[in-house]
Fold this sequence. Notes:
By secondary structure, the protein is α/β, with parallel strands linked by helices. The protein contains 14 helices and 26 strands. The mean pLDDT is 95.
Amino acid sequence: MARALMIQGAGSDVGKSLIVAGLARAFVRRGLCVLPFKPQNMSNNAAVTVDGGEIGRAQALQALAAGVEPHTDMNPVLLKPETDVGAQVIVHGKRIATARAREYAAMKPALMDAVLESFERLKARADLVLVEGAGSPAEVNLRKADIANMGFARKADVPVVLVGDIDRGGVIAQLVGIKTVIDPDDAAMIQGFVINKFRGDPTLFDDGYKLIEEKTAWRGFGVLPWFARAGELPAEDALGLSDARKPGQCKIACLALSRIANFDDLDPLKLEPGVDLVMVRPGEAIPGDVRLVIIPGSKSTRGDLAFLRAQGWDIDLLAHCRRGGHVLGLCGGYQMLGRSVSDPDGIEGPAGDTPGLGLLDVETVMSPQKTLTRVAAVHAATDQPIEAYEIHIGRTDGPDRARPFARLNGEPEGAISRDGRVQGSYLHGLFTSDDFRKAFLAKLDIPAGDEPYHARVDSALDALADHIEQHLDIDGLLALAR
């Protein structure tokens, strides 16, 4: 059976996902079989697994870092928010319910069994299981029935290392405060800490580092400087896409929907040297000089249609089309482009019909069955292969399907408007296919770079492992695992 080590955070977005990925790559290079694990994740950015389920995108990246296929056991409980108070509950890769926050809290004790089953299966396959927490153990109001942080660590007897984000400020108070507010038996599971995202001269933090050690009696495992290539790796938060602005290049705009999903579709475009990727935020207008507007996936298509209209983006899109601009809708964005979206059974919210944007002559009807599969398609316009995945509910049909975006097992996939400027597809991850991406951009008169996308991601993972090896005591971290 494998040893295990858990990386928890002093807060959300402190960098624990990337640290787990970097540690996985570093330990694999030492000859260990490493598997990532996150008991519970909350994200609308999902990946399709080899066993036909879905998990958080961060665990798929960690699996890539470890050189293994992503599997549903790596993230047994996934929450996909549909509204401000409710989310889909995915267990072992499959949707089992839609629950409000209080309802989900009541479900958690039963979900611990599913979490532990997955953990034990991973331990049977690996030398080392690297576990990622969620949020922070300081959220003591959520400690009862917790399955994501200390609840899991205590139940599975996994030692914990805390990550603090110094770039946000207040990292001393965060770490010392956690020791103060959590249960003493929980605190006993924490064996040390890491300071992440340091900028400048790390010796300036020597006194702060020693103070944390003195106040907590936890061992410090190092100060990790800011990793400059983090933007080359898929992010779980769409806000990370805004770091990629390249003024002066050809603009592609993406609408930052309120329930944006699977926005990692944009990652390869973000890295293209000829593309300036613009995330259009709520309250902002779609720029008038963009060549392409992407309407991304959404966890609530009808809800985000209303959100889109509330921003005035429907009017901006019509003006963009009148100027000869192009539009691409992906998954939920494809559904929005049609004449209507119907949800007779209330799968994504209250039952009813919502008028679409009317830019494609198709209609969508939501259905309980979710399509969840990896696919190999061929782009209809260029005959370039596309490796992608589908993860959606609903069926879309109509006259514009006679002009498909792609061919999938010989059948038409997606739709294109009569003038060819508006396109829709259910294919996620399509831009990771280098030849297709180059051909697609060429039709927009946008030059593409030569570096293969997957090679660039793999290079960034190697650089991340080198960075962690240089600055953290990873031998000491490995020695903690049990």
